[in-house]
Amino acid sequence: MSTEVRVPTLGESVTEATVATWFKKPGDAVAVDEMLCELETDKVTVEVPAPAAGTMGEIVAEEGATVGVDALLATIADGASDSAAPAAKAEAAPAAAPADSGGEAVDVMVPTLGESVTEATVSTWFKKVGDTVAQDEMLCELETDKVSVEVPSPAAGVLSEIVAEEGTTVDASAKLAVIGGATASASSAPAAAEAAPAAATSGKDVEDAPSAKKLMAEKGIDPASVKGTGRDGRIMKEDVQKAASAPAAAPAPAAAPSARTPVTADDASREERVKMTRLRQTIARRLKDSQNTAAMLTTYNEVDMTEVMALRNEYKELFLKKHGVKLGFMSFFTKACCHALKEVPEVNAEIDGTDIVYKNYVHMGIAAGTPTGLVVPVIRDADSMSFADIEKAIAEKGARARDGKLSMAEMQGGSFTISNGGVYGSLMSSPILNPPQSGILGMHKIQERPMAINGEVVIRPMMYLALSYDHRIVDGKGAVTFLVRVKEALEDPRRLLMDL
User: Fold this and answer.
1) Do 269 and 288 sit in the same domain of this protein?
2) Is 202 in contact with 222 (CB distance < 8 Å)?
3) Active site residue 471
4) What phi and psi, each to the nearest 5 degrees, are found at residue 276?
5) Distance in angstroms (rounded) separating the CA atoms of residues 384 and 145
6) For residue 474, pLDDT beyond 70
7) Residue 393 carries which DSSP code?
């Protein structure tokens, strides 16, 4: 008996992941919940635990493979008695090759591309006609408007025909190529065995990730100069990107793409081309979708931070001593927003078809910058939390965001977002909505400015506030009222205690 290891739920709107690293190999003993492999999505890294104890059996999805939700990753043999299964399968493969084909050709079809994706473009063929291929060896890579999809060989044999050349646009049911029949397959096993030493000219006998090969070819990088971090030294796409960004002699300049402004050969040699990470691609797509979908407007105000700063200075040491966390400005802003959202509930709502969904809770998104891009962890039920609880949650989520350890669940379900550009020195900006939310508050740098108060000019610590809102739900009056209520609560924090 064996237990299947499948792709776990990846989270809302995430349908695919890439197998980044296997921590176990066939024949290894595994314990229940021991980490078997790591998957990368366009948002987070997901670790896959063992669903049962036993011996690692067959690895179905190798490193670099793109898999969908619930796809089979591997099998775990029950008990030590089955530990020889992987070896037996490996030894049986060459003998089975002639019988697999039986004189029949096998079609290579476009794999499932994911929800709402109907076509793809053939970007790269890793094999050419006449090459020997093993079952599950990567044949080509397809590009969709969402992700890149690598196509494995459905059988062992010889690539006898390529139907869709590079650059061809294919639909979800198209044929890509043909794997040859019995004669070709019969010779594939010894040919593959001889090919391994020949391919090991770089000093290793493992196959680099196809996406890494493609990137090395594009950048003219010698595989011998790249240190692989995959299993057994396998070169992954990230390794190539790292090598490309390291100081080195610039590769020969490529012809400038037609969509770019023409550059000289000297300029091209000093440029660096790095493929966008899946996270950055998702950020770019979602932000543009937000602009295209929502009727987004921004209203501005300013807040005198004198009272908040005085209150914070007075109680910060006592607060830290009692609660074990520093008293920052974010808890004041979170409380002020929760207070204002009760009065203007449409800012805490979203559109679902022809309905407006009002939220009787506040799940506050706190935008956080990380080395890989912007993420928005969500503090659930922030409206029922104390100042200390909010500060602890912000500190914990922020640390997890910087370490890349946020789960999908921690970044979903937000009803309103606060973005603090002031930590980077921003004086004024127009934040972009985080769909499907209808409001986002932008905080900015606190700057001393001369203000006219009671007929006198005084210096006060001022901050510009910006509320971007979806005009389809929120009218101008509601947006201005919300921002005024936030301003009033911050300029007189006692209002928060008395619910005024």
Assistant:
1) no
2) no
3) yes
4) -60, 140
5) 41
6) yes
7) H
What backbone torsions phi and psi does residue 473 show, to the nearest 5 degrees?
-110, -45
Same structural domain, 38 and 69? yes
Q: How many domains does the chain have?
A: 4
DSSP annotation of 49: E
- Does a structural domain hold residue 209? no
Cβ neighbour number for residue 394 with a 10 Å cutoff = 22
The token duo for 34 is 């021991």
For 124-190, the DSSP string reads: EESS-TT-EE-TT-EEEEEE-SS-EEEEE-SSSEEEEEESS-TT-EEETT-EEEEE--HHHHHTHHH
- Domain holding 59, by residue range, is 2-83
Q: Are 436 and 266 in contact (CB under 8 A)?
A: no
Mean pLDDT of the chain: 80
- Distance from CA of residue 475 to its chain's centroid? 34
Whether 394 and 414 share a structural domain: yes
Give the pLDDT confidence of 244-276 residue by residue, as tens digits: 777 644 444 444 455 566 777 888 788 888 877
**Beta carbons within 8 Å of 193's beta carbon, 6+ residues apart:** 94
| Core vs surface per residue 114-133: b (16+ CB within 10 A) or e | beebeebebbbbbbeeebbb
How many other CB atoms are found less than 10 A from the CB of residue 258? 6
Distance (Å) of CA 377 to CA 88, 363, 398, 399 = 47, 10, 8, 11
Q: Which residue has the higher pLDDT, 242 or 114?
A: 242
pLDDT at 361: 93
CATH code, domain carrying 58: 2.40.50.100
What dihedral do alpha carbons 485, 487, 493, 494 form, nearest 10°?
Answer: -40
- Paired tokens of 203: 């000093």
In a domain, 214, yes or no: no
Region of 126 on the Ramachandran plot (φ > 0 left; ψ -120 to 50 alpha; else beta): alpha
The answer to whether residues 395 and 423 belong to one domain is yes
Distance CA 338, CA 383 (A): 5
Q: What pLDDT is stored for residue 440 in this prediction?
A: 95
Catalytic member of 33, 145, 381, 471: 471
Percent of the chain with pLDDT over 90: 30
**Together in a domain, 20 and 78:** yes
Q: What is the pLDDT of residue 255?
A: 45
Residues 6+ apart with CB under 8 A from 331: 387, 390, 391, 394
pLDDT for residue 86: 41
Does residue 215 sit within a domain? no
Amino acid at 338: C
Q: Per mean pLDDT, which range of 82-91, 426-435, 443-452 is the poorest?
A: 82-91
Q: What is the pLDDT of residue 192?
A: 39
What gap in Å lies between CA 373 and CA 66, rounded to an integer? 22
The string of pLDDT tens digits covering residues 370-391 is 776 778 889 999 999 999 999 9
- Between 448 and 134, residue with greater pLDDT: 448
